[in-house]
């Protein structure tokens, strides 16, 4: 019985620590959106920390990754088309 209480305490403490650290990193990233700093790197790191324990953060991180991937893919496609146009003009 004591062992179970210790396990619940450890699990709760771990969840609180991950929540506080992740929320702090995420908040710093949000502040960096309006101040100088690498916000676009810090925000996903904060979500990654939070996603260790929270499914809502995992869903946000997945959506953010998909958005970044689509944006990069579109950018690469437009660069490839521009390159083909330049090469075809020669």
The value of Rg in angstroms is 21 Å
Structural shape? elongated
Order of helices and strands: HHH
Distance between the termini: 80 Å
Oligomer: single chain
Strand content: under 5%
The largest pleated sheet is described as: none
Helix content, binned percent: over 70%
- Based on secondary structure, the structural category is mainly alpha
Count of domain modules: 1
Count of DSSP H/I helices: 3
Query: Which residues sit in consecutive blocks of at least 5 with pLDDT less than 50?
Result: none
* Average pLDDT rating: 87
Q: Strand tally, please?
A: 0
Explain this structure.
This protein has 90 residues and is mainly alpha-helical. It has one domain. The chain is 87% helix and 0% strand. It contains three helices and no strands. It has helices at residues 2-31, 39-51, 55-89. Helix 1 (2-31) runs antiparallel to helix 2 (39-51). The radius of gyration is 21 Å and the shape is elongated. The protein starts with a helix and ends with a helix.
SSE topology:
Blueprint: H1 2-31, H2 39-51, H3 55-89
Helix pairs in contact: 1-2, 2-3
Describe the structure concisely for a colleague:
With 90 residues, this protein is mainly α. It has 3 helices and no strands.
Characteristics of this structure?
single chain, 90 residues, mainly alpha, elongated
């Amino acid at each position: 019985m004591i062992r179970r209480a210790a396990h619940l305490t450890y699990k709760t403490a771990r969840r609180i620590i991950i929540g506080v650290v992740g929320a702090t990193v995420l908040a710093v990233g949000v502040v960096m959106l309006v101040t100088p700093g690498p916000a676009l790197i810090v925000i996903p790191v904060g979500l990654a920390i939070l996603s260790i324990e929270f499914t809502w953060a995992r869903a946000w991180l997945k959506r953010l990754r998909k958005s970044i991937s689509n944006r990069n893919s579109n950018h690469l496609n437009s660069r490839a088309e521009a390159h083909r146009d330049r090469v075809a003009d020669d």
